[in-house]
């Protein structure tokens, strides 16, 4: 397999990143188990700087790539985990990169505080979306309230948003957008992890 045959999903990493919100997503994208095309997808981390960052759970992560070197043409998706930085200027480079991705037609997936950053930047004003709660986004003074949907995760034209309390549904929306799994396999995956139904495990084992 050549380097060019690998499809990369970029995950933004920064101090205060909410580890638990992307665990299902990163583990499954980076693992070939049950993938439609085993070995096609991989995760790479990207950050505004090159120094290690510390997640909310205290894990130290060394970014694979600086944000200014990331081109939408080299990525299948930009994932923005929840964080405490979104109301500050420190998060501006990530919003700018998200805009660049969307302008190029490349999907962006944001969860928890990252949805707040996109809301503040006006990026949710013309897309159906969700977040931790409607009141959370309303408190930020955004103009997209009419398109808020009280669902665990929403995908509107390649812009995926998710609630902090719904990491499994957020991951499922990402997998569906990327086409990582056959639909029946994705249903079994969600049956196991989303509904805690052991039947999903046996279905996956037989897939």
Strand count, sense and barrel status of the largest sheet are: 7 strands, mixed
Total individual domains: 1
Order of helices and strands: EHEEEEEHEHHEEHHH
Helical segment count: 7
The CATH architecture can be named as 3-Layer(aba) Sandwich
Keywords: Glutamine amidotransferase
InterPro entries: Class_I_gatase-like (IPR029062), DJ-1/PfpI (IPR002818)
Domain DJ-1/PfpI: 9-175
Protein name: Type 1 glutamine amidotransferase family protein
Topology, element by element:
Blueprint: E1 7-12, H1 23-29, E2 41-47, E3 53-54, E4 60-61, E5 65-66, E6 77-80, H2 92-103, E7 108-111, H3 113-120, H4 134-138, E8 153-156, E9 159-162, H5 167-178, H6 183-193, H7 199-205
Helix pairs in contact: 1-5, 5-6, 6-7
Protein architecture, described:
It is a single chain. The protein has 207 residues and is α/β, with parallel strands linked by helices. It has one domain: Class I glutamine amidotransferase (GATase) domain (Rossmann fold). The chain has helices spanning 23-29, 92-103, 113-120, 134-138, 167-178, 183-193, 199-205; strands at residues 7-12, 41-47, 53-54, 60-61, 65-66, 77-80, 108-111, 153-156, 159-162. The strands form two sheets. The chain has a seven-stranded mixed sheet, sandwiched between helices. A two-stranded antiparallel sheet has the order 3-4. Helix 1 (23-29) packs parallel to helix 5 (167-178) and helix 6 (183-193) packs antiparallel against helix 7.
């Amino acid at each position: 397999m050549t380097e060019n045959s690998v499809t990369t999903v970029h995950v933004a990493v920064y101090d205060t990143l909410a580890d638990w919100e992307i665990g299902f997503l990163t583990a499954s994208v980076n693992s070939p188990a049950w993938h439609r095309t085993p070995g096609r997808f991989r995760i790479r981390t990207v950050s505004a700087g090159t120094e290690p960052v510390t997640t909310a759970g205290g894990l130290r992560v060394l970014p694979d790539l600086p944000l200014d070197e990331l081109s939408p043409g080299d990525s299948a998706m930009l994932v923005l985990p929840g964080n405490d930085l979104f109301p500050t200027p420190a998060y501006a480079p990530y919003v700018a990169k998200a805009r660049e991705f969307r302008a190029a037609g490349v999907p962006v997936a944001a969860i928890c505080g990252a949805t707040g950053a996109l809301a503040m930047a006006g990026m949710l004003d013309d897309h159906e979306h969700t977040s931790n709660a409607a009141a959370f986004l309303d408190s930020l003074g955004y103009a997209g309230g009419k398109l808020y949907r009280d669902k665990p995760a929403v995908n509107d034209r390649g812009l995926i948003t998710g609630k902090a309390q719904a990491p499994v549904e957020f991951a499922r929306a990402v997998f569906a957008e990327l086409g990582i799994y056959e639909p029946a396999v994705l249903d079994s995956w969600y049956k196991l992890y989303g509904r805690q139904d052991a039947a999903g495990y046996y279905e996956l084992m037989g897939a």
